[in-house]
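Annotated sample (chain length 300).
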Amino acid sequence: MPQQYWYDDAANREDLLDIITNTSPRETQLFSGLQRSKADSIKHEWLTDTLKTVGVNAFADGVDASYPGTTNPTRLMNYTQIIREGYSITDSEETALKAGFASRVSYEDMKQLMNWKNDAEFALMRASLVCGSGSLARQMRGVKNYINSGTVPLYTNASGVSLTEALLNDRLQDVWNAGGGEVDAIYVPMYLKRKISSFGTNLTKNVAADDKRLVQSIDTYQADAAKLVKLFPHRYITVSGDTNYDIVGIQEDKFRVAIYRSPFTRELAKTGDATNKEAVGEITLEVLNPKAGFWAEKML
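Output written by the structure step:
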């Protein structure tokens, strides 16, 4: 009698786990961590003002007041950016028996909202301002480009320069000197995150219970010009095509995500034997003080 082998038997059922593991990264430190604001128009505006330059202030008895004049507030702006993720599921696919989920449409609703958040994070960090037209999409000005557009740009083209602890402290001091306050969050690619971690002397471990991003211990850096700086490895601060590595530091309460339309999913017109949907939302970046951050690019 011939011997029977497992792989010859068509009656054997496949061994397929009822689980789907998404292997793509989902790290949205800006979108998830910055404070929220509300945008009421596609052109979102806000005001900043400054105090006079400090100096000697002494008056003799009984003299009249002086009237040197005052500065007017300055209006800043950003455009809202529409972010959309379209998807189409055939009716046959939706009816088929699945592993990992019951409904492909419901699964894609969740998946495309994750894609939406990733694209929103990319825009918040990297987008360049575009006012838009009937045929041209509006874009917000992201963190990098808002820092570079400030009245005192805190941008450095550090092409070929190796990141050192002294250089990092210089950038933190630049923000303090410019009147931007104290940096409390640094965003770097993993390579530079490891370099900062190797500094060692001013590195501690902390958890901020009110920060939803800090689900476990995270590195914080302490410096003279910035007492407690959270260090975030960021996937979109340096991407394929960039030259070397960038580092961005901000005082987070001066940067906010302004929501014009919160992200949601909706069904689109049925044009065939399929369900057509999209995840859509509209947001922009609100920067209360463009001096409250630095951007050094092209580092080693």
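Annotation: The chain has one domain: 29-48+74-299.
Annotation: The helical segments are 29-33, 91-95, 104-126, 143-148, 165-177, 190-199.
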